[in-house]
Structure formats: C-alpha cells, structure tokens
Amino acid sequence: MKKVIVIGCPGSGKSVFSRALHDITGLPLYHIDMLRWREDRSFISREELIEKLKEIGTSGEWIMDGNYGATMEMRMSMCDTIIFLDYPAGICLDGITARLGTKRPDMPWADPDKPDEEFIEFVKNYNTVNRPNILERIRNHSDKTVITFGRRKDADAFLNTLKQKHIQTQQNTAD
To answer: Which of 33, 38, 78, 120 could share a disulfide with 57, CB 3.0–4.6 Å?
Structure first.
C-alpha cells in the first residue's frame, strides 16, 4: 500500500479516514478538494487539476482522497490500492450534518451552517446513481488491491489493525 485512493459518497469520511491512514503510514496526503478549490469558492480548470494529479501520481508514494469522476480513471490507473467507503446514504448525511459550520483541513473554507439542498439530493441519490459506475470502474481494475467498507466500525477496525502492525514493525526494527 504505497499509492492509495480513498473514494466514497460525500459525507462518508474520506478525508477523516485518509488523515488517519496518513498518520499511521506516513504516506503524503493530498485532498483533491484542496487541489481543486480556491478560498473564494472558485476552482481551477479540469486540465490544471489533471496536471497536478499526474505530477503527484508519478511521485513516489501518496494517499489521494476524493471522487471527481473526470479524474477517477486516471487515479485508479496510478494507484496500487483503492479504498471505497461504501456507506448507506443515511450515514453520509449524518457525516455532512456533523461537519456543518466547521473549518476542515481538506477544504479551503468552512462548511456552511446549512447544507445545500442540491448537494443533499446528490448524496441521497449517490448509491443508485453514482455507486454503480464506481463499482464498474473498480471491477475494471482487478489488478489493484481493493478494500471496501460498508460500515464505519469496519474502517476503524482496519485502521486500528494497521496501526498495531505498524507499531509492531517499528518495535521489531528497533530490536
């Protein structure tokens, strides 16, 4: 696990999971939202984003979190591990509600105090509209390690196990 993408519905906790994975592995972490968006809520062009992602993707090791369908195929081709947070819409909506009005390290601005209704509809429809496409893309990359979590507690257990293995490896190296 040296080049990892973390994907999933908005509100699934991609950035939180990615930060925890970064803390355990030390792999450089790139939030696609931070690469794409500016503080004034404008964004760079798709071409500029693709160039940034290509530059990161050809570097040594990394974690990239975020969806962005226009770049997903490219990122899947560059990575060795795909982590898919495949949660029910209700869990993702709870995640969005929990972050309302907060400044996040994965976005250049604080979340609004009230969610955008169009965004909420996107999240509600994600599993029927977007998820099938993501699953198809994952199937097309059978050469990758694919880790799918259907529940937050399973993702947390994975991170805890990885952390314990990392600690044990460090102790064995020190001996």
So the answer is: 78
Count of residues making up the chain: 175
- Nearest Cα residue to 10 out of 122, 116, 106: 122
What homologous superfamily is domain 3-165 in, according to CATH?
P-loop containing nucleotide triphosphate hydrolases (3.40.50.300)
- The sign of the torsion formed by the CA atoms of 13, 67, 125, 133 equals negative
CA distances in angstroms from 69 to 45, 73, 97, 162, listed in the order given: 14, 8, 24, 29
Phi and psi at 61, nearest 5°, equal -130, 155
Nearest to 7 by CA among 82, 97, 107: 82
Q: Are 68 and 32 in contact (CB under 8 A)?
A: yes
**Nearest CA among 26, 4, 16 for reference residue 152:** 16
Q: At what angle do helices 152-174 and 14-25 cross, to 10 degrees?
A: 10
Question: Which token pair is 65?
Answer: 């979190």
Q: What does each C-alpha distance from 59 to 28, 54, 159 come to in angstroms?
A: 10, 9, 24
Q: Is the pTM of this model over 0.90?
A: yes
Residue that the structure tokens 């099938």 belong to: 132
